[in-house]
Amino acid sequence: MNIELGTAIGTAPTSLAAFDAALRVLGVGEANLIRLSSVIPPNSAIVATDRVRKPINWGDRLYCVYAEQRATRPGQTAAAGIGWALSDDGSGAGLFVEHEAETESEVIDLIHASLEDMTSNRPGGFSRPAYRTVATRCEDRPVCALVLAAYQSTPWFTGGAR
């Protein structure tokens, strides 16, 4: 399974609309997000993308891990990030962590701290942490920094009566 991981920034008149704008930048604005805990299944590959390419129809369920931080006051900053570590057994299994803060450096520190603890308390070895982050600054309208890892999309109905 390819897990597509992308970053986006949204700007709009409200913080919720800024979150929606960031989702639309990533191409997932019409999906119902199903937020997962942070376990990467075996046989997965993490693929960086500017826009999620999984087929998503209006209202589909999108299974994902995401981090989002909003800023609403001029001068305020927002940063978000997802980090991951993969099992060193080559299975593709691993762990994601998602963090939000005011700055990218804070997010990166949180990612490293979480993955260090989470991998040290599991059997086997793990790769060095990798991560993607995004940050933005509120100028005159609310903003949202978003990092999203899309596992798969599923329609609500797969046939038969609706």
UniProtKB/TrEMBL annotation:
It comes from the Bacteria. The keyword Membrane does not apply. It is an enzyme of class 4 (lyase). The keyword Lipid biosynthesis does not apply. InterPro entries: Pyr-dep_his/arg-deCO2ase, Pyr-dep_his/arg-deCO2ase_sand, Pyruvoyl-dep_arg_deCO2ase. Its cofactor is pyruvate. SUPFAM superfamilies: Pyruvoyl-dependent histidine and arginine decarboxylases. This is Pyruvoyl-dependent arginine decarboxylase AaxB. It comes from Skermania pinensis.
